[in-house]
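#struct-pred
JK: can someone run the complex with uridine-5'-diphosphate? inputs below
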Amino acid sequence: MQEVRANPDLLSFVIPVYNEQEVLPLLYSRLCEIADKLPCPVEWVFVNDGSSDRSWSILAELAAKDTRVKVVDLTRNFGHQAALTAGLDYARGEAVVVIDADLQDPPELVFDMLERYREGYDIVYAQRVKRHGESWFKLITAELFYKIMKRYIHKDLPVNTGDFRLLSRAVVNAFAEMREYHRFLRGMSAWMGYKQIGVSFERQPRAAGHTKYTVRKMFRFAWDAILSFSTLPLRVSIYFGLGVIVFGMLYSIYAVARYFIYHDLVQGWASLVVLQCVIGGTILVCLGMIGEYIGRIYEEIKYRPLYMVYRTLNTSLMSVPPRSVIPETRRRNRGTRD
Ligand code: UDP
Ligand code: MG
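RT: done, structure tokens with the ligand placed:
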């Protein structure tokens, strides 16, 4: 395809870091190698997401000798998606690559992504054809998750993609305007449209360290993804409730009939108790479902910032954008480099 766009005048990498002391030196040297071959200057925005190991001091050392290393240090662990958001806010490049610190996403893929970028695509997501070194549990749950998401939640969600992707400045600006608290960046970027395309790669095992996504965090993440994009769970509880009511009505007809035919209704006590439980349970499930959404409404309406920044290196500390509106001046400043 013909190229319609020039290389970005600055390419940013957004790298969330949570207790990654083992991989950081490795990652840095890999990134340097790539930077030498890239057709444009780069900056690496490392977001230290409240690491409790030596990640911060390693990053500080790197930042002292290389000004391309920018570090944003959050006040505590805000989670992967919030850290990514912080990185996107601080990135100054005309194009931004979002990448994990653990080298599971091969940074070399950036060359392919840039090619697509020059062809005019605004979102180039990496699509994994194979995953190495991950447990069968993770593989199966991930597969199932994408099936469900695609079928019921968001038909445009590309399967088998992570957050590893290249975004044009227009898309990064669009993200800056979407400040919802429960974030699912992949879903959000599917939602926003623009010209999107995938490039495929084989997911590598972690270079060092271990996964920071516990099973609990993973389910929380999947739950967020589903609830923030659909009210299907609410509807499911309604259908379930309706089902139970119909069952209850049929059962009462059966009980009355039995009374007239066999005159032994006292024995029906057990079934009454069962019905009580089923109906009571359904009501609780439905209430819980509604509660989930109300809880979300509450969290959204507080308009808390998505993260807090403690200190930065090689980049000036900005005020954290409020959740409600991005001030006009900030928006205008975007895309221009310091
Ligand atoms: N991460 C983060 N905050 C967290 C959890 C993870 O910034 O609370 C970072 C982590 O350092 C890594 C990326 O997010 O760079 C992906 O995490 P991980 O590799 O543990 O997830 P997995 O690849 O196992 O899904
Ligand atoms: Mg990983």
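RT: quick notes.
The first helix runs from residue 24 to 37.
Residues 232-301 form one domain.
JK: thanks, will look after standup
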